[in-house]
């Protein structure tokens, strides 16, 4: 962090809040009351909670845009209350809803603002601005000299993120940064943030109202109640599988089990096998492998082992070449697909199975509804409250 500490090279550092409270002048109750939490280095922690619960206040105390009334906050072990607030803020990236860009400054000047405050030389700032615009998928030549009003909402948000990252801070605070864009752009920006974070490993504190956004982005989620009281602080999986109380359950909303499916990848589950034959084999080969079990279905693979057609023993008996047996495989899921994608494929398949393919499109196995249900069951049991009746 600051001058007398070892440089972080921009890698995330731990943030600790110890009994932090904020009472605004003239208010009867504190906006934040005695919050204690540790945000591990390099993780994304999402603060979710209803409007007025104190999320923004909690976040802004970390960079001292709001001064705590009491308590202690450390970043990388250093007490932030002992630092000069201006210097502190240069070491913490900050991005907010509607990007908060300065309208009279160009995109380049906005992105280069903190580096200029840090007195980097001009050439280094220019290079850094272009590097950051590239990073957030904006062509520097096209966007560097434009003004914020000449950008779409999504582009402005990207510039906001580029600006927050420009001085390579170890910590990034993001207050509903994608709140003002349409759902599709929001999804794209979320994906981009996840990709960036996988490379950068910052410590990110992210505020949102949107529980689905929290599930997607958070390594951990803190569900806050009134006065920022922490109702539950855990991984998205654990919160979805076992909400701490009715308030958290209400916030998680309907469809918790379905949301869990977005957190699991096909590669993490055990796929099953069906009988297969390559397209050059005689139809009788597939018929024999399928045996006499009624309705059993097998796969015809092409010469490179890629799934081509679904066929039953009866289908195989009705043709002279497997090239024409049964029906074509319409869709497949990859090892990196989510279980939600797999479920979608299962539900739209005539026989209720999804074929799983590897990186070259080769056959790996199949998943069916039982596999998906067993996975959800296992997740629930893994995160079950020990006191709860499992029967
Ligand atoms: N400057 C202020 N002066 C007095 N009260 C304030 C001030 N800023 C916020 N508050 C109050 O503190 C409480 C917490 O506000 P805060 O903005 O932190 O909540 P939030 O969870 O971020 O809300 P939202 O999701 O609506 O943005 C609210 O009751 C709010 O009215």
From TrEMBL:
<dbReference type="InterPro" id="IPR003593">
    <property type="entry name" value="AAA+_ATPase"/>
</dbReference>
<dbReference type="InterPro" id="IPR003439">
    <property type="entry name" value="ABC_transporter-like_ATP-bd"/>
</dbReference>
<dbReference type="GO" id="GO:0005524">
    <property type="term" value="F:ATP binding"/>
</dbReference>
<keyword id="KW-0547">Nucleotide-binding</keyword>
<feature type="domain" description="ABC transporter">
    <location>
        <begin position="15"/>
        <end position="252"/>
    </location>
</feature>
<dbReference type="InterPro" id="IPR017871">
    <property type="entry name" value="ABC_transporter-like_CS"/>
</dbReference>
<keyword id="KW-0067">ATP-binding</keyword>
<dbReference type="InterPro" id="IPR027417">
    <property type="entry name" value="P-loop_NTPase"/>
</dbReference>
<dbReference type="Pfam" id="PF00005">
    <property type="entry name" value="ABC_tran"/>
</dbReference>
<protein>
    <recommendedName>
        <fullName>ABC-type quaternary amine transporter</fullName>
        <ecNumber>7.6.2.9</ecNumber>
    </recommendedName>
</protein>
<dbReference type="InterPro" id="IPR046342">
    <property type="entry name" value="CBS_dom_sf"/>
</dbReference>
<dbReference type="GO" id="GO:0016887">
    <property type="term" value="F:ATP hydrolysis activity"/>
</dbReference>
<keyword id="KW-0813">Transport</keyword>
<dbReference type="GO" id="GO:0015418">
    <property type="term" value="F:ABC-type quaternary ammonium compound transporting activity"/>
</dbReference>
<comment type="similarity">
    <text>Belongs to the ABC transporter superfamily.</text>
</comment>
């Amino acid at each position: 962090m600051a001058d007398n500490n070892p440089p972080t090279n921009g890698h995330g550092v731990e943030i600790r809040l110890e009994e932090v409270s904020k009472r605004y002048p003239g208010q009867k109750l504190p906006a934040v009351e005695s919050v204690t939490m540790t945000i591990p280095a390099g993780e994304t922690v999402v603060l979710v909670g209803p409007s007025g619960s104190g999320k923004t206040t909690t976040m802004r105390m970390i960079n001292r845009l709001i001064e705590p009334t009491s308590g202690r906050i450390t970043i990388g072990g250093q007490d932030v209350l002992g630092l000069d607030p201006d210097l502190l803020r240069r070491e913490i990236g900050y991005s907010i809803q509607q990007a908060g860009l300065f309208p009279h400054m160009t995109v380049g000047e906005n992105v280069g603002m903190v580096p200029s405050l840090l007195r980097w030389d001009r050439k280094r700032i220019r290079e850094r601005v272009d590097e950051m615009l590239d990073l957030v998928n904006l062509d520097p030549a096209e966007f560097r000299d434009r003004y914020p009003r000449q950008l779409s909402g999504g582009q402005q948000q990207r510039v906001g993120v580029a600006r927050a990252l420009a001085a390579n801070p170890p910590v990034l605070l993001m207050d509903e940064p994608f709140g003002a864009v349409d759902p599709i752009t929001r999804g794209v920006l979320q994906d981009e943030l996840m990709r960036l974070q996988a490379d950068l490993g910052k410590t990110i504190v992210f505020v949102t109202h949107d529980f689905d956004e929290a599930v997607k982005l958070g390594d951990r989620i803190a569900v806050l109640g009134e006065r920022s009281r922490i109702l539950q602080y855990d991984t998205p999986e654990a919160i979805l599988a076992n909400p701490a109380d009715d308030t958290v359950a209400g916030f998680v909303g309907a469809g918790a089990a379905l949301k869990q499916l977005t957190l699991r990848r096909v590669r993490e589950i055990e796929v099953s096998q069906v009988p297969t034959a390559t397209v050059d084999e005689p139809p009788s080969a597939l018929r024999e492998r399928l045996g006499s079990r009624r309705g059993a279905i097998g796969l015809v693979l092409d010469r490179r082992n890629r799934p081509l057609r679904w066929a039953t023993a009866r289908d195989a008996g009705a043709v002279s070449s497997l090239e024409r047996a049964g029906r074509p495989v319409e869709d497949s899921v990859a090892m990196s697909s989510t279980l939600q994608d797999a479920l979608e494929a299962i539900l739209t398949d005539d026989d209720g199975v999804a074929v799983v393919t590897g990186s070259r499109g080769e056959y790996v196995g199949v998943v069916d509804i039982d596999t998906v249900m067993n996975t959800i069951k296992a997740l629930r049991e893994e995160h079950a409250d020990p006191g709860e009746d499992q029967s």
